[in-house]
From TrEMBL:
Keyword Signal attributed: no
Protein name per Swiss-Prot or TrEMBL: Unannotated protein
Annotated InterPro entries: NAD(P)-bd_dom_sf, Sc_DH/Rdtase_CS, SDR_fam
Keyword Oxidoreductase: yes
Pfam families associated with the record: adh_short_C2
Keywords (A to Z) from UniProt: Oxidoreductase
Gene Ontology molecular function terms on file: oxidoreductase activity
Family assignment from sequence similarity: Belongs to the short-chain dehydrogenases/reductases (SDR) family.
Length: 272
């Protein structure tokens, strides 16, 4: 078994030797599926109580049934400041908030000459404004006792892709929100970092046409480590950044992409 697989197995429910989040309270936006759910699984395996905000009532109910008293759930539209405030009230109802992860996002796009303003606004509002609102209110909950926030950006924060202007701009914004928030919050003992994933096997990837073998082969041609990412890969990195092991790291964006950005983003126009 490889070291990477051991990390994935642990996040999938294996017993951790030294739980880094024992007794701590965490919040995860977009936590009912994909990368967010991978983070939830990792947090629970390491002793945290997790509050999950997500827009999908069906997957929220499934998560609530799976994890029982280890989670609290709330139907949340991250574009709504009132919803984010309600999520923070739920997350802090039993004590202070220690860590937060912002994984809510949407993958839609079109060539810029076909980009509808409504779609642009939807992608930017969910992927960028939603992160701003979450960081704003998560940090408020941490000002007295400190804490750590991890945002999910994307390799598209620095690498363009055909038909992905809105998404790429939004994720670049997430990277800069992370840096500015780290400056504003450092004096309060609050760290803010980001993860930039490559292609990951999630429901969103499948919905956006990245789950077919033809498309996956295109990604693999450009990925030195030779495999598609799994939610556990991203969760491992995110939990490290949120933990005390990363206590002198803030304002950074960690690329977790199997080495993809060492080569070139694949041209997927002929297969999606």
């Amino acid at each position: 078994m490889t070291h990477t697989q051991e990390g994935i197995d642990a996040l999938g429910g294996g017993k951790m030797r030294h739980p880094r989040f024992q007794g701590k309270s965490a919040v995860v936006t977009g936590g009912a599926s994909g990368i967010g759910l991978g983070i939830v699984r990792g947090l629970i395996s390491e002793g945290a109580t997790v509050t999950i905000g997500d827009f999908n009532p069906t997957t929220l109910e499934e998560v609530a049934q799976e994890f029982g008293s280890s989670v609290k759930t709330l139907l949340v539209d991250v574009r709504s400041e009132d919803d984010i405030i309600a999520l923070m009230q739920l997350a802090t109802s039993d004590g202070p908030l220690s860590v937060a992860f912002n994984a809510a996002g949407i993958g839609e796009g079109a060539p810029i000459f076909e980009q509808e303003l409504a779609q642009w606004n939807k992608v930017v509002d969910i992927c960028l404004t939603g992160v701003f609102l979450a960081v704003k209110h998560e940090s408020k909950a941490m000002l007295k006792s400190g804490g750590s926030i991890v945002n999910i950006a994307s390799i598209n924060s620095e690498v363009p892709a055909y038909g992905a202007t809105a998404y790429s701009v939004a994720k670049a914004g997430v990277q800069m929100v992370t840096k500015n928030a780290a400056l504003d919050l450092g004096a309060y003992g609050v760290r803010v970092n980001a993860i930039a994933p490559g292609i990951v096997n999630t429901p969103m990837s499948i919905r956006t046409g990245h789950g077919t073998q033809v498309v996956i082969n295109k990604w693999l041609e450009k990925t030195p480590l030779g495999r598609i990412g799994q939610p556990g890969d991203i969760a491992s990195a995110a939990l490290f950044l949120a933990s005390d092991e990363a206590s002198w790291i803030t304002g950074e964006t960690l690329f977790v992409d199997g080495g993809l950005t060492l080569t070139a983003y694949p041209d997927l126009r002929d297969v999606t």
